[in-house]
UniProtKB/TrEMBL annotation:
Name the UniProt record assigns to this protein: Polycomb group RING finger protein 3
PROSITE patterns: ZF_RING_1, ZF_RING_2
Keyword Nucleus assigned: yes
Classification of source organism: Eukaryota, Metazoa, Chordata, Craniata, Vertebrata
Gene3D superfamilies assigned to the protein according to its UniProt record, in alphabetical order: Phosphatidylinositol 3-kinase Catalytic Subunit, Chain A, domain 1, Zinc/RING finger domain, C3HC4 (zinc finger)
Keywords, alphabetical: Metal-binding, Nucleus, Repressor, Transcription, Transcription regulation, Zinc, Zinc-finger
């Protein structure tokens, strides 16, 4: 059987963050130009800039953070290509939460046994791939399509209504994947309240309207840092409907 060996450093440029020069962690892509960075690096950069760090294209004049999105596919690729990276990152996160005296989120508690290695990594930086790798990748994609993110980090949320024009949810406490977005929550609420369109809703955290593409993990890290679970979110009709 023919095999092909690829040196890891030959593809480093494609799986590293141009801001920190390290391997991508929580890979996040700019929707305007599709350049990818570590989420923490990109968020910090966009606090004072509104352009892509690589190509300098304007992401958005006033709200660039609303035009970036988690790139799960890229992160999965990085974790598969770099031996031990995922385990090391989980260990760092666990130590971080323990240092702060906070509860460790679900999938950081060591639930990495389900992650599969499809690449035979070698100490000299070479990676061997063959047809078994491609078959394994296909099988994993099929499994991922069936698990509905159950192996993801989980976030506990309390959804409160702060408008007299909408009713409250019968079950306002939910738990879902940290990779779910604000748009997912809008659709969930609209379905439960039988609204004609999820676009009629705003979701807020600390009285700030959240962008539809924000992941819940992003909201927790940037708007709910150091606060205890659950993440408290409010929903209301859009301002132009009030």
């Amino acid at each position: 059987m023919l095999t092909r060996k690829i040196k890891l450093w030959d593809i480093n440029a494609h799986i590293t963050c141009h801001l920190c020069n390290g391997y991508l962690i929580d890979a996040t892509t700019v929707t305007e130009c599709l350049h990818t960075f570590c989420r923490s690096c990109l968020v910090k950069y966009l606090e004072e800039n509104n352009t892509c760090p690589t190509c300098r294209i304007v992401i958005h004049q006033s709200h660039p953070l609303q035009y970036i999105g988690h790139d799960r596919t890229m992160q999965d690729i990085v974790y598969k290509l770099v031996p031990g990276l995922q385990e090391a990152e989980i260990r760092k996160q666990r130590e971080f939460y323990h240092k702060l005296g906070m509860d460790v989120p679900g999938d950081i508690k060591g639930e990495t046994a389900s992650s599969k290695q499809f690449l035979d990594s070698h100490p000299n930086g070479e990676i061997k791939t063959d047809d078994n790798f491609h078959r394994g990748t296909l099988e994993e994609k099929q499994e991922e399509g069936n698990d509905y993110h159950r192996s993801d980090e989980q976030v506990s949320i309390c959804l409160e209504c702060n408008s007299s024009k909408l009713r409250g949810l019968k079950r306002k406490w939910i738990r879902c994947s940290a990779q779910a977005t604000v748009l997912h929550l809008k659709k969930f609420i609209a379905k439960k309240l039988k609204l004609s369109s999820f676009n009629e809703l705003d979701i807020l955290c600390n009285e700030e309207i959240l962008g539809k593409d924000h992941t819940l993990k992003f909201v927790v890290v940037t708007r709910w840092r150091f606060k205890k679970a659950p993440l408290l979110l409010h929903y209301r009709p859009k301002m132009d409907l009030l």
